[in-house]
Design brief:
Helix content is 41%, strand content 12%. It has 24 helices and 19 strands. The strands form six sheets. Strands 6, 7, 10, 11, 12, 13, 14 and 15 form an eight-stranded antiparallel β-sheet that branches. A hairpin with a 6-residue loop joins strand 14 and strand 15. It is globular.
Length: 579
């Protein structure tokens, strides 16, 4: 550190000794400017703040919401954490406080105003003048996570009043989700294994908060699946993500609604990459930016589970071993079994180690979305040959008569009708038909693939919910794809047929109703990211949506607390992948 910085460091030390704990950036700049020894220029002052932060002498985050203040006494954050992250024996005695802490312990939720009331206690009053700044720091550090709410009529994000506090949840998971849903038949698993026998509680708690900010908390048996060291979130309607702590491991499960063999590799790979990056950020607490690291430098190693979800093999060994037999169950695994976690998102064909759909997956009835993906990737000319093997020739004739100009919809509808009419309408029946046609059954693997969606839409827009105006503008532009788009977004065939019947001569109205019905569903958060991926999956592309967003102010999509007094944020134009 240059000697020129020493006077400012001494000035700050004197202020801390006098009881000062936070300075605004303006106050710090003034303190620097009146120095009688040396004055740092703006670049030097910026470097000074980052260096002092890295040493733990101050706390300074150079982000939009936090860069206006500097905590010059880091012990203040100890008091902040002590104010609400505490054992039951240290809860305040007042009844109102007891109610707040009891609710937080049971549900993991605290109201913004409740936390402000906690800070009104005598010991924590120094926090109050900076309560909004401190609150934003807690969110930035994943100690608090927003419980987001949306206006179901407009899609606008409502002001956030409730926040999750995972580190205060003491209740253990007592639901039957793991026994009934997270089974070897439906799930795959990997583990992040840390050195030592126990993981510091702060790390999994912050990881859980990060999951809450990215995905929708799942409800099961009437309860939200957030417990001590355990969370389940919905990635989409077919996939759930489970994160739980066991000893020195953080276990990650991807759970499919029907079969582990139908888990989309792009989903599993994307979730894995997302959590690795998140844990790298969490582990690197004092860094304000994330630097790419070699996997050996991380505080954990990745291990893959056997198909019984119990035995584990290190990622390095798994990818170098052609055959692995787990110790406890004597189950044989091949290198292709790990592709689901390491999918090459740019490769649209099966990997050379692909073993096709598993026996369990073949026994499952395909969902509408899976049939849609199959129909999109199946040649129209081949459909005429396929339908006799499915005993659907008459239905195919009727459907093509009703949709003479839209063979893509006809392909999807005949498969949907086949699933509805036939008792054995499973993947095995499709595989047998393909074999009779001398077509590789790896065609079915396409139901487990989603196209990599790339967009120039700024990153900060992607997790926002589209507004009425955006959907109104998009509906006339996306063309005659309402059936495919609706199915990809999870609407039922019955819903789509009703939409078509109600708006038979109005294509834009059909598209609009599909978009609005999708947005009303809160099973999975209906974000711009989801809409972009759906448009790409059905082959339409998201350029039309990108053009609409050029005229949308980010502030109209964000909650009011984030933009109050800040003005518009600078847009990022870096191309990003949707995963």
């Amino acid at each position: 550190m240059p000697n020129a910085c020493v006077p400012l460091e001494l000035e700050i030390a004197e202020m801390v000794a006098a009881g000062k704990q936070i300075l605004s950036l303006v106050e710090l700049e003034e303190l620097n400017s009146i120095s009688k020894v040396s004055v740092l220029d703006l670049e030097q002052l910026h470097d000074f703040l980052h260096f002092q932060h890295s040493l733990g002498k101050i706390i300074y985050f150079d982000t939009l919401q936090l860069r206006d203040y500097v905590i010059i006494n880091p012990l203040l954050m100890v008091e902040v954490m002590r104010s609400f992250v505490t054992d039951i024996g240290f809860w305040p005695k007042k009844r109102r406080m007891q109610v707040i802490f009891s609710r937080m312990s049971e549900s993991g939720i605290i109201h913004r105003e409740d936390l402000y009331q906690i800070w009104e206690q005598k010991d924590f009053r120094p926090i109050l003048p900076y309560k909004e700044f401190i609150f934003n720091i807690l969110i930035h550090l994943d100690i608090l996570a927003e419980q987001r709410r949306y206006d179901t009529a407009t899609g606008s994000r409502l002001p956030v009043e409730n926040f999750f506090v995972p580190c205060m949840v003491t209740e253990r998971n007592t639901t039957s989700f793991m026994e009934k849903e997270c089974t070897p038949e439906k799930a795959i698993c990997l583990a992040f294994v840390f050195k030592g026998t126990v993981i510091p509680p702060a790390l999994p708690n912050r990881l859980i908060s990060a999951c809450l900010s990215m995905w929708t908390l799942k409800q099961y048996e009437g309860r939200k699946l957030l417990f001590s060291g355990f969370i389940v979130v919905s990635f989409d309607k077919a996939h759930d993500v489970v994160v739980c702590v066991e000893g020195n491991k953080i276990l990650l499960y991807i759970v499919h609604t029907s079969s582990a063999g139908l888990i989309v590799p792009d989903v599993a790979t994307g979730v894995k990459e997302c959590l690795v990056t998140t844990m790298e950020r969490i582990s690197d607490f004092y860094q304000s930016t994330i630097h790419e690291k070699n996997i050996q430098q991380l505080p954990f190693q990745i291990e893959y589970s056997c198909s019984a979800l119990k035995c584990f093999i290190s990622e390095e060994k798994a990818l170098q071993t052609n055959v692995w037999v787990c110790n406890e169950h004597k189950l044989t695994h091949r290198v292709g079994d790990w592709v689901v976690w390491n999918q090459d998102k740019n490769n649209e064909q099966c990997d050379q180690n692909c073993q096709g759909l598993s026996d369990d997956a073949l026994s499952q009835r395909p969902s509408d979305i899976e049939l849609l993906r199959f129909s999109i990737n199946f040649e129209s000319s081949q459909m005429y040959e396929l339908v006799p093997y499915l005993e659907m020739s008459k239905e195919w004739g009727d459907i093509t008569l009703n949709y003479p100009k839209d063979i893509k919809v006809a392909k999807f509808l005949v498969l949907s009708k086949w699933k509805e009419m036939k008792d054995k309408s499973n993947f095995k029946a499709l595989a047998e038909a393909l074999t009779k046609m001398d077509i590789s059954t790896h065609v079915l693997c396409q139901v487990r693939r989603v196209r990599l969606a790339e967009t120039d839409i700024p990153l900060e827009y992607l997790d926002c919910i589209p507004t009425d105006e955006m959907l109104d503008a998009l509906a006339p532009q996306i063309g005659q794809i309402f059936f495919q788009l609706g199915a990809e977004l999870g609407l039922s065939i019955a819903n789509l047929e009703n939409i078509q019947s109600n708006n038979s001569q109005d294509l834009a109205a059909q598209n609009k109703e599909v978009l609005f019905k999708w947005r009303e569903d809160r099973t999975v958060k209906p974000t711009i990211r989801v809409l972009v991926q759906a448009l790409v999956n059905i082959g339409r592309g998201a350029y039309c949506l990108q053009e609409i967003l050029k005229n949308v102010d980010l502030n109209t999509l964000r909650r009011s607390e984030e933009v109050k007094g800040k003005g518009s944020s600078q847009k990022t134009t870096k191309k990003c992948s949707i995963s």
